Amino acid sequence: MKTLSVHVPFRFAFALHWELSFKPYLNFIHAQIRQTDNEIYKSYLKSIAGIVEQNPVLLEPIKDWSVLEPFADLLDLIYINHYPSLGANHLYAIGTPSSPMKFFSYSQEFKKLISDTDGNLKLHLHDSFVNEEYTRRLYTDILCKCYQVEDLIKDSSQTLLRLIDKSEGFERHYHFLSNNQFVGINYSGTLPELNPEWIEYAKGNIESIKDLKHQIPLAGFGLEGFILFTIKDETVAEAVNQLRENVATMHTMSRKESYLRIKGNTLSLLQKNAFEVGFLPLIDINKRIFYHKSFNYTSILFKMLQKHLTTAELNDFLGRFIDMCSITPEYPIQIFNEDDVIKTELKKYLVEEGVKNLTIIPVFHQQNLVGVIELASTQEEKLSMEDVRKIESAMPMYSEFIVYQTNKLHEQMESFIMHNYTAIQPVVEWKFNEVAWNTMQKAPNTKLPDISFKELTPFYGAVDIKNSSGERQKAIRRDSDRNLKMLETFLLKHGDTEVTSQEHVSLWQDFTEENLGDEQELNLRLFIERAAQDLLENYPDLEIDFSHEEESNYEESLFSINNALKEVLDVQEQKLKKLIPVYFDKFRTDGWEYTIYAGQSLSPEITITPDMIATVKEWELETMLNMGMVAASLRDTIPYKLETTQLILANTAPLDIRFRADEHRFDVEGSYSIRYEVVKKRIDKALIRETNERLTQPGKLAIVYMYATELDAYLRLIDEYMKQGLLEKGIEYLDLEDLQGVVGLKAIRVTMKSPQAEA
Question: The whole model's pTM is what?
Answer without folding.
Answer: 0.52
